């Protein structure tokens, strides 16, 4: 996805990482880059808002249960492998 405007970070990269941003799972530097892009780009900010509302809804409907740390780590590893396999964004450990 692209809004047609030039940004330091491509829209598709930002949207690929919006869940990392929402969950505060990216480092401070990357978070600042994503936040700057969201402040500049209305289409991405709108999509971010949809994702944020979805996350809130899921948390409310799932009763706030937290997944075990082992499961979260397996899920992160699986997501990393999928992104790498499909040539997605660069992921820093």
TrEMBL record:
Domain Putative zinc-finger: 11-44
Protein name: Mycothiol system anti-sigma-R factor
Species of origin: Actinokineospora xionganensis
